[in-house]
Amino acid sequence: SEMIKFLTEPLLFDTEKGNYCYDNSTRIVIPVNKSEKNFLSAIKIGDTIHEEDFKKNNLNELLHKIVKYNLFQSDFQLPKITEQFIKEKLLTEGISHLCLIVTDACNFRCKYCIYSDHYFYSKNFSNKRMDFQTAKSAIDYYMNVNIKSIQYNPNLSISIGFYGGEPLINWKLIKQVVEYTNDNYKKVFDNIFFSITTNAYLLTEDKINYMFDKNFSISVSLDGDKENHDRNRVTINEKGTFDRVFKNLALMDDIYREKVRLNKPVLPYGILITYDNLTDFSKLDKYFMEHPELDKRIQRVNRVSNINTEYYKGVQLEQSYLERRKDFIKGLIERAKDKQFEKKATNFSKTILKSIIFDPMMNTAYSNNELRGTCLPGIHKLAVDSDGNFHMCEKINPHYPVGNIETGLDPTKQANYMNNFFSALAGCKNCNLNNICNLCYVITETDGQGFQLKDTFCKNFREGIINSFSTYYSILENNPGIFQEIRE
């Protein structure tokens, strides 16, 4: 009789109403009954089962699904990356996004900043600013790569981001870049987009108008209400910044609405929220309920990074806050089961729910995840610092350069990083989550000596994913239409 060999282990999870199984090789989730669950929970990787055994145990239905959808069948091979592979990707994909780190200076000293002394491998603040010559070389390089790759991507759009420090400190350069890019490359590319991440302190009416008129999407950091924002986001002299940021956001909203009213093309702006162990979610939710104009602009709600840092050691881990957060999230999950949830809830709440449930499962967007949650260094994003060195993104520490403005991208380095990264993942071969894992270089960075996967990452990721799955399916059982637009 036929045999079924399990090349990946079933991942079982429960909801209040049922039991399910996730298959890592196809990313399919199937409902299972009690006997199917017991059968699958005994399976180990490499097991071979006779089709007769399924039939004997009354598991015809399960056998049918396994055969029909080809479940549990993928054998995971880590890719070996060659320079040729990198060169072809660069030619056929172009560089998606150019990120100019226009200054290392900042007018804030946020307590959780990645450039603060709390973080081990990152650089600290300095007064370095990018000059126009450096920016111009970076733009020319980026554009020339993309001009070559237009034949493969006729709809290629150009995206240039300004990052810091606080990019508005180098406002003069930002304007020079925009003018230079539009003057020289508008005729080649139909779509040129700019973006900026700013603390909004230095915004003025002129700057806001200029950016909206030039096709900018603007992201502003605001940590919710005054009390929470001012706890972490302070000036160099430790003064709170909420009042001024709030005032500038209101000004931006007025200008934005006016442009929309006049039918001018304008990209929506967004708000980024960062929270730590002392953030009170229910207070923030109430705050955004009272400020719908801010609420609907929330793009992301991120936790302060806990990787390569002692940030959380200094903060007394306030159990009471963490308990309250757990309660808030429990309540949020209950509310999401109501079909009216999306109409009633704040965008703040919905964003948190998405980040708990969807972001972990977000890699289901890729059809085969051979790169994990990581990118092609320098190709999916090219970050350029004020000295003209190329980095794979703005978040990675400076010990992993991928080239510079003089010599361009260095395919030897790019391929080496990828192969070093994959060799650090040798233990992932038999993992039944490796197809939705979001491991990346930043999570495994050291001081340039290759990459390291910490055991705690895997343990936490697994707990988190199983939790996400059961939360998500518990909600779906009650409110099958939730977040339809993301799921499609």
What does this structure look like?
- With 488 residues, the chain is α/β, with parallel strands linked by helices.
- It has 19 helices and 15 strands.
- The strands form three sheets. A ten-stranded mixed sheet has the order 11-10-9-8-7-6-12-13-14-15. Strands 2-3-4 form a three-stranded antiparallel sheet.
- Helix 5 runs parallel beside helix 6.
- It is globular, with a radius of gyration of 25 Å.
- The model has no long low-confidence stretch (mean pLDDT 91).
Topology record:
Layout: E1 3-5, E2 11-14, E3 19-23, E4 28-32, H1 34-41, E5 48-50, H2 51-56, H3 60-69, H4 83-93, E6 98-101, H5 132-149, E7 158-163, H6 171-185, E8 192-198, H7 205-213, E9 216-221, H8 226-232, H9 242-261, E10 270-275, H10 281-290, H11 292-295, E11 298-303, H12 311-314, H13 319-336, H14 341-344, H15 347-361, E12 382-384, E13 389-391, E14 403-404, E15 408-409, H16 411-423, H17 441-444, H18 455-478, H19 484-487
Parallel strand pairs: 6-7, 6-12, 7-8, 8-9, 9-10, 10-11
Antiparallel strand pairs: 1-5, 2-3, 3-4, 12-13, 13-14, 14-15
Helix pairs in contact: 4-5, 4-16, 5-6, 7-9, 15-18
Broad structural category: alpha/beta
| Strand order in space, largest sheet | 11-10-9-8-7-6-12-13-14-15
Estimate percent helicity: 40-55%
Q: Alpha-carbon distance between the termini?
A: 40 Å
Shape: globular
Question: If you average the pLDDT, what whole number results?
Answer: 91
Beta-strand percentage range: 5-15%
* Quaternary state of the chains: single chain
Counted by DSSP, the helix tally is 19
User: How many β strands by DSSP?
Assistant: 15
As residue ranges, the low-confidence spans are none
